[in-house]
């Protein structure tokens, strides 16, 4: 895993921050590999890029907050402000959330944690087209990244949850994901002495650990996953040399009125937090996923999905809700193959008006892919705890075996699909 090399605050802002910011190493309480249970402690400082307010909570500071609103900056303007960010958690709540996030004790059989499907070194996703849960069976969709999830206001591909707290109920209690029940989860946490101690530190006013504190901690941790210091960002803040000629050319294609990518994948987050019907295909043999039609009970949203961020996009493949595209070139080419190119026969879908027929050249598609590579910034990757309060292994072998098998199968399927397309040509 990547280690934080330096404080990663851009330009002038580091002066502002100097007193309050710590490195990730200092931040996260533990400092050696062999902690005994009594040695678990929670961080007292905010994560890097956050400052501690007089009220004792962490506030995000970024260069983007100094820019005015999205208005009047044109399509894909670089110096635009960010939407509101969910913050205001204490350092202890964030750090407790980190332990919970990596602890397989949150699943029914202790075999998977949130981090099994949202792995820090895989763009907080899992390299699988569709994730596998405790049964080893593939679930319906691909695991989205959690980078910058603090700026998101609707969760899941079909936008069915309105907060991170509400979102957490999905994986925790879905029989195909972590398979737990609220009663069992609470019993597990309450009977783990280290958690009892840590929750008391993080929530000094609490009478007894409740589900609410578990969801709040998971939320607090996730809001610290900030990625806003990529080479693209340095360019956006005015350092032209941060990008190569090709990368700038790629950015220009990306935000051109021909390709229109930036209409939906709007800087600085590379999403506009909307849902849209783009008509991306399901994998061979799977029936149409109606997406947000179900959430809003609105037929015109058949096949609508949340516009995903493209931050750290090179790390989080396979792509789209279905994991249908193995690499970025395939995903980008989809937009060039014609409006509605993948709508199954007999289905009607109201494809979004910004999905056009851009007729980009192969070179232009390559340039977009090159540009997307500049959106990588994992400098604030949190540390994976060496141990978690339950004492369970942080990533369980059973899960490792199951996901290895699933990846091998995925490769075979992909090769078969390629063979079929080639022989069909
Ligand atoms: C079995 C794999 C798996 C596990 C375990 C898992 N997730 Fe996920 N996660 C997914 C998938 C797949 C989706 C998308 C599901 C959908 O859209 O229907 C998702 C979606 C999310 C989202 C929504 C992101 C967005 O932008 O909409 C968040 C947040 C999230 N997970 C956090 C968590 C947390 C916190 C945990 C632990 C409590 C967790 N996940 C456990 C696979 C998993
Ligand atoms: C009308 C809005 C819209 C426009 C315009 C648009 N996209 Fe998307 N994009 C989406 C939506 C919605 C998804 C998710 C669709 C799905 O999962 O089926 C998506 C998914 C993606 C993904 C996969 C992300 C992931 O995490 O899996 C990439 C890459 C991408 N878009 C790049 C582009 C590029 C490049 C362009 C311009 C050629 C573009 N998009 C134009 C809405 C849009």
From TrEMBL:
Record domain Cytochrome c: where: 92-193, 245-376
Signal peptide: 1-24
GO cellular component: cell envelope
Keyword flag Oxidoreductase: yes
Alphabetical keyword list: Heme, Iron, Metal-binding, Oxidoreductase, Peroxidase, Signal
UniProt KW Oxidoreductase keyword: yes
InterPro entries: Cyt_c-like_dom, Cyt_c-like_dom_sf, Cytochrome_c_Peroxidase/MauG, Di-haem_cyt_c_peroxidsae
EC number(s) reported in the record: 1.11.1.5
Pfam families in the cross-refs: CCP_MauG (PF03150)
One Gene Ontology MF term: metal ion binding
Top-level EC class: oxidoreductase
Location in or out of the cell: Cell envelope
Domain of life: Bacteria
Residue spans of biased composition, Polar residues class: 406-425
Region Disordered, residue ranges: 399-425
The protein's name: Cytochrome c peroxidase
Native organism taxonomy: Bacteria, Pseudomonadati, Pseudomonadota, Gammaproteobacteria, Alteromonadales
